[in-house]
Design goal:
The chain is of the alpha+beta class and 175 residues long. It is 27% helix and 22% strand.
Length: 175
């Protein structure tokens, strides 16, 4: 069953995981027991539970990523990035990131070959992305309004100077 219509935690996870495409590969999603219970209690997941008994397995298939439930270091998505990507010689993006990262981690050598045959040294970087973190904290920032007409249709001229496109008010110094 698809989990597209859910809200809150699943939406945040979905947005994070699918925004990584091509740049990083998710390695594991770690939930706290409370977050896992919150996900189970969501209506879309409860409907899916009727069809399947194992919620964790359903989530692993949906995100194509292993899921763990534990108390410490929880509510994170562990992602891995191949660096450098794209190829530093030709600029070609390296495909099949997850498979390449697994191969590099299992071998002592860090040699990478791009699709055009160039060979270069690479490394794997690991990131821990917090599920609970608001990705756009600046989104709620209030927009300045014109003191003369109250419009938000202002043109920013510098750090401190504005010009209203509706009533032509400005806060520039007179010459």
């Amino acid at each position: 069953m698809r989990l597209e219509n859910s809200t809150s935690t699943l939406d945040r996870i979905h947005n994070i995981v699918f925004s990584l495409r091509g740049a990083m590969a998710p390695a594991q999603i770690i939930f706290s027991p409370e977050t896992y219970q919150e996900i189970i209690n969501q209506q879309v997941v409860r409907q899916a539970i009727n069809a399947e008994s194992d919620v964790r397995q359903m989530l692993e298939r949906h995100f194509s990523t292993p899921i763990a439930i534990r108390e410490e270091n929880s509510d994170v998505i562990i992602t891995k990035e191949l660096y450098p990507n794209p190829c530093p010689i030709c600029g070609c993006r390296i495909p099949f990131l997850r498979e390449l990262i697994e191969r590099i981690e299992s071998q002592p050598t860090r040699r990478i070959r791009c699709p055009r045959g160039h060979r270069f040294e690479g490394e794997i970087k690991t990131y821990y992305l917090n599920i609970r973190h608001d990705p756009n904290p600046l989104k709620s920032k209030a927009r300045p309004t014109c003191p003369q007409c109250g419009s938000q249709n202002l043109q920013k001229l510098s750090q401190t100077d504005f010009f209203c496109l509706d009533c032509e008010w400005d806060n520039l110094l007179q010459i």
